[in-house]
Amino acid sequence: MAQDSATRTAATGAPQPLLMELEHRGRARGLWSDALHRLIQNRLAVVGAVIIAVIGLAAIFAPFVAPYPYEQIFPGQIIEAPSATHFFGTNLSGQDTLSRTIYGARNSLGVGIFVQVIILVIAVLVGGGAALGGKTADGLLMRMTDVVYAFPDLLFVILLQQVLAGTRIAAYVGGLFVVFLAIGLVGWVNLARLIRGQMLALRTTDYVIAAEALGATRTRIVMKHMLPNTLSPVIVALTFGVPSAIFTEATLSFIGIGIRPPLADWGNMIYDGYGAVLATPWPIFFPAAALALTFLSFQFLGDGLRDALDPRTR
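Given the sequence above, the corresponding structure tokens read:
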């Protein structure tokens, strides 16, 4: 054993304790545990994750956290400044701004998360089908992707939202989910291209070629070898996509075609407070601050995930 250790030390030029430590680290941590360890060491990413968790919990338990129902009106208390009764003040309708900000987190975060689910499903089908379906399928799917990419995103979302609002889909799922669907049907393009590029690169790797030589089916190769190795950039892209979807929905609400009152939403709260911004900034300040804080938190978390999952930064 001592001779073997001496041989390894002489061959590598590294002392035996260092070799033992490296071997221990290699056995102790896999890809995901190592990524989690690196993510925890990133303070900004941890701060972003904590803020997102706090906002998410407040949104889930909004009826217990908010001091008042979001639709409750207080007669004679219009656009009041923050006070002991209304910590964030009131809006033009005499509603408590803090309560509406907390309830608004439900719709805003809901848009960001559910839209990413829609985007992921479409992107996997289109990007995976283009990478694995042969030249004909690749050409057709990528040309369709180019057509969608050619449209301005916001204009396309507005058109789809208006078209879907008058269909039976809106009657079944409601206006809120029509907004989700419209944003999701537009935002899948970049992720589909990313998945296609990752899978095309993985098709030529040694372990995929070895699996094909051993007789593994196409489904097994995709599910066991290709999709898991595509997850890292996809997770990062979805994390960055959440604030983008929230901003798109806020823009729709601001111009009056997104989530509409009496439902609380940060976008329509900013729109409602915009008319009185010269008289008092409070109705617009707090929802705008919540929107900015959420955006920064997802940016910090996305940057941390990108660094933690990128093997080149190890």
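DSSP finds 14 helices and no strands in the chain. Try to locate this feature in the token string yourself.
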